[in-house]
Amino acid sequence: RQQRLACERFSDAGTNLRALYLTLESTRLAAQRGILKELAAIATALLGPGVMKRPAHEVLGIAESSPLAVAEAAYRMFAKERHPDHGGSDAAMKELNEAIEWYRQR
């Protein structure tokens, strides 16, 4: 895979070239040792429920300006359908939980 890197932090080309080499070498070693996958998992976990794919009101099927009570009622209704124990999926329930959590923290 071809990539392009640039480094202009230092005043001379030799130092910039060394910085690029050290960056590439540390990235190569991290990938070889499996550290990059762990770092990606940690970064994903740190994002938490605040980063959603769809807006909370769309997930809950309510208006954007709806109060928490309406969001809670919609959550209870959809939780019955989307819960994995009732034929739903883990992903659908997770999205629903993130949506109601967003409304609760608002």
From TrEMBL:
Gene3D superfamilies: DnaJ domain. This is J domain-containing protein. It comes from marine sediment metagenome.
